[in-house]
Amino acid sequence: MSSRSRLTIPLLFFLSGFMFVTQALPDDNVSTVIQGIRDRYGNAAGITAEYTREAISKTMAMLGGADRQDIAQGRLYFKPPHSLRLEQITPQEELLLTDGQTLWWYLPLKKEAYKYPAAEFGHELRLLSDIIMGIRDTRDNFQITLKPHSGIDTYHLLLNPDPPWIDIDHLEVIVLREDFTIEQVEIHNTVGGLSRFILSGWQETAQLNNGLFSFSPPQGTKVVYK
To answer: How far is the C-alpha of 48 from the C-alpha of 18, rounded, in Å?
Structure first.
């Protein structure tokens, strides 16, 4: 498996400015949800949250369950507009971070670090931050609709890339009705599987300095430049 393929799962999570061009808003409810997300997160100087990622195959998705052998947990740190840090704790330690210009993926157990230009992963890097900041102002266009029969306590926003993306069919963002907290993000791929990110423990903070989003490989680390 190539390093780019292995990077896809953690990178899609920041599928990170939370600001989409809202190309299609079919009713006032969609606008209400988007404005609620913006009011909830859009003015924060910094944000942290805990996450659980579940990678679900097409077969497991059809059965309505997750493959419990592919679960990762950790914590994210976000500083507008494009600084993001993901600290994976289990099943093994990994670090993915970007300052908006450069992206680092560090695998301490393997003593390897991959360095990428952030522009190469523009879709993924902007997507998570765009969602957090209220679905606005990215170059990527989405058809945004409200899923019929959403839960009693939640809204389910469906985001369909327009024009279509090669690997991603659509995204589903699940938001609490009570206070517009983002509870879950699902990235559905074109072959029927999905990556589900369950988010909790959201906290606003002004204490995220720029150094948190920069990286210097420890001595003895093999650095691969992409």
So the answer is: 14
Q: Which residues pair with 116 in a beta bridge?
A: 103
Q: What is the mean pLDDT of residues 37-43?
A: 87
**Distance separating alpha carbons of residues 80 and 204, to the nearest angstrom:** 12
pLDDT confidence of residue 206: 85
Domain count, the chain: 1
pLDDT digits (tens, 9 = 90+) for 147-172: 887 778 999 999 888 888 888 899 89
d(CA 54, CA 194): 8
Domain containing 24 equals 3-225
For residue 98, give the CATH number of its domain: 2.50.20.10
CA–chain centroid gap for 220, Å, is 30
Task: Give the contacts of 39 (CB within 8 A, at least 6 positions apart).
Answer: 134, 180
